[in-house]
Amino acid sequence: MDAQKVNVNVELDRGDGVTIQAQRMDWIVAVEDLVFGGQKTEPAEGDRIEHWVGSTKYTYEVMPLGTESHYRPVGPYGTAWRIHTRLVATE
Fold first, then answer.
1. How many angstroms separate the CA atoms of 18 and 61, rounded?
2. Which of 17 and 60 is assigned the larger pLDDT?
3. Torsional sign, CA 54, 29, 12, 69
4. What is the spatial distance between Cα 10 and Cα 87, in angstroms, rounded to a whole number?
5. Are 25 and 6 a contacting pair, CB within 8 Å?
6. For residues 62 and 80, what is the distance between their CA atoms, to the nearest angstrom?
7. What is the pLDDT of residue 29?
8. What is d(CA 82, CA 30) in angstroms, rounded to the nearest whole number?
9. Which of 66, 62, 59 is nearest to 81 (CA)?
10. pLDDT score at 1
């Protein structure tokens, strides 16, 4: 599946004067490309994306970004999804 990787620097204010900074990874995926078992599907929280760089496997987990959902439509016609993830494992 083709996907565009987007690095995201996140700064969240907890509301008590503490700011949390984190780096996340978003993926832009065409809606028509997200098919499992012959069925079009939507991203679900907890889904995992495995990305290989050479012999290293990076595993990202789909999760919400701040107050946003774990994914959102992209573009004027919603033909792609921007999926929010966080790196959870490197092997």
1. 25
2. 60
3. negative
4. 14
5. yes
6. 16
7. 93
8. 9
9. 62
10. 65
Burial 39-71 (b: 16+ CB within 10 A, else e): eeeebeeebebeeeeeeeebebbbeebeeeebb
- Please give the model's pTM, rounded to 2 decimal places: 0.79
Q: Alpha-carbon distance 45 to 58, whole Å?
A: 18
Q: What does the pLDDT read at residue 5? A: 80
Give the amino acid at 14.
R
Q: Kindly calculate the radius of gyration of the chain based on its CA atoms and give it in whole angstroms.
A: 14
Report pLDDT digits (tens) over 1-46. Answer: 677 787 777 777 778 888 877 778 899 999 999 888 889 899 999 9
| Structure tokens that stand for 47 in this block | 């889904």
- How many angstroms from the chain centroid is the CA of residue 24? 8
Return the structure tokens found at 10: 């996140």
